[in-house]
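Appendix B, record 7
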Amino acid sequence: MTSFPYLVTTKTGQYRYRRRVPDVLRAELGKTEIVRSLRTADRLIVARRYAQVHAAVEQLFAEARQKAGISADTAFDLAVASLKSRGLYGLTDNEDRSDAQDIVLRDAGFTDAEELSEALEAYADGKAPAKLRAVSAALGIIGGDKPRPTLSYCLSQFLEEKARGRDLAKKDWVNYERERKRIVGEFTKLIGINKEINDLSRQDARGFVKKLEDEGYAPASVRKQTKFMTR
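Structure tokens (predicted):
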């Protein structure tokens, strides 16, 4: 059932919803995955129950993001989803863009962009509620801003995709996730900051290869680690 990415089956044939909790929300939720029994083995029933559970988990994540504060990457994702749902994404006409920005501000309860800016300034950097940051990101997107994902965000998205339908408690997945985090963590430590992907350079990559070689990794291991980083 490929249309249900978080659907797994137990040994008895019962269906479950199983989803990895994004790294940025784990401290807030106190868990690494969400598992919900759909209490059925019937394919005709599972679609409705899956939709209900999925909506509840999405709401849980949204509330956790609002409490924890969210990254610029996540704010951008939320803004894109909101704009697409209202038919305001991908506008090219300047007048349409202006109208769309007015709609976004009005729906969020603001009269203009200056009022939104004042609301954002009341919070420390990165700690404004998810709703405010998503509104700010939406205005930028309408104006032509492009996503600039960071290294850690790309890793999170990569692992989220890889985790779909897997048993996250199994040793092979635990080891796989740990190793990918270790590689990215070592690379981030080397370059000093969690860079945006577009800012990574060949010099950064060469430095990481040299680091691995200096630490005594075999050529095959160096290739394996750098291959993952280029995906």
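Remarks on this record: The chain is about 60% helix and 5% strand. The CA atoms of residues 34 and 57 lie 8 Å apart.
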